[in-house]
Amino acid sequence: MSEALSTRHLLGIDDLSAADIELIFRTADGFKEVLSRPIKKVPSLRDTTIANIFFENSTRTRISFELAEKRLSADVVNFSSGTSSTKKGETLVDTVNNILAMKVDMVVMRHADPGAGVFLSRHVDASIVNAGDGTHEHPTQALLDAYSIREKLGRVKGVKVAIVGDILHSRVALSNILCLRKLGAEVTLCGPATLMPRHARDLGVHVSHDLDETLRWCDVANMLRIQLERQGGDGITNFPSLREYAMLFGLDRKRYEAIGKEITIMHPGPINRGVEITSDVADGAHSIILDQVENGVAVRMAVLFLLAGGPGRSARS
């Protein structure tokens, strides 16, 4: 198997082959060992400058990328659209080209518009990592989720994964579906009909509107956040109330115990506690939510390292 990625960008899971994903996972295994050391840093990207360009608010993803970059000894430039010249009318390409003129090698970008990373990759000479583009994709989240399943269960192939909640507005859902399917997992989408994409089954997944039945089927339940900010602010056009949503599609201890078997609980964050999941389940023994956060740093280290040249740099690691 080749020890290099087949792409110079990570714009979406479709950019990656199953072999690419496995290479990222093996590389992340090595970086997890690094992160367990007293000195959690390697000089692998000490000659690389990475710009984090976020046009949408982010906490976990931005911190995770920045920490991954610093653990690799990269030089890091953080860009916030709220205080930038984009407020004066500067275009995306002009903004990034000005940053690249400062000799930046790689751009990690989050943007509200689907396809923004693809557009940028066609206009600038730098590797682009998509940190989320609108309701389209969030590839590194899908990679860290699949990696966390692999770590917990020892495999991804054949695992039954339920993705529950606001599928329609979730970039995490689409990337997870594509990644899990490439690795041989079975996937069921579960949520209200009003939050289910019309052509969801075309992605090779099952669709359910019965959470209890779905939980009895699955090995892993990935509970997604209701994205009220993408639904006009209150969600009333998609379901009657948060209380009713929680009754029908929320996971609490009583519902978990009624499953009759152990399943692994995941959540990409941020959590609306008491809506899609209660604290006693999110913080319980079967939850790997904090493992997802930890694994996110190792997986993003692997992605950045491989896109920057990968094993050719190993002698400096």
Task: Outline the structure in words.
It is a single chain. The protein is 36% helix and 14% strand. The chain has 317 residues and is of the alpha/beta class. The chain has two domains: 13-137 and 293-316, Rossmann fold (3-Layer(aba) Sandwich), CATH 3.40.50; 139-291, Aspartate/ornithine carbamoyltransferase (Rossmann fold), CATH 3.40.50. It starts with 17 loop residues before the first helix and ends in a 10-residue tail after the last helix.
Rg calculated over all Cα atoms: 19 Å
Secondary-structure element series: HEHEHEHEHEHEEHEHHEHH
What CATH architecture of the largest domain do you see?
3-Layer(aba) Sandwich
CATH topology of the largest domain: Rossmann fold
Helical stretch count? Answer: 11
Q: What is the assigned CATH homologous superfamily of the largest domain? A: Aspartate/ornithine carbamoyltransferase
Number of domains: 2
Q: What is the end-to-end distance?
A: 21 Å
Order of strands in the sheet with most strands:
7-6-5-8-9
Main beta sheet: strand number and arrangement? 5 strands, parallel
Structural class: alpha/beta
Strand content: 5-15%
Which percent range fits the helix content?
A: 25-40%
**Mean pLDDT rating:** 91
Number of strands: 9
> Shape from CA axes?
globular
**CATH secondary-structure class of the largest domain:** Alpha Beta
Question: Ranges with pLDDT <50 over ≥5 residues?
Answer: none
List the helices and strands and how they pair.
Elements: H1 18-35, E1 49-54, H2 60-71, E2 75-80, H3 92-100, E3 106-111, H4 116-121, E4 127-133, H5 139-153, E5 160-164, H6 171-182, E6 186-190, E7 206-208, H7 211-217, E8 220-223, H8 242-249, H9 253-257, E9 264-266, H10 279-282, H11 289-307
Helix pairs in contact: 1-11, 2-11, 5-6, 5-11
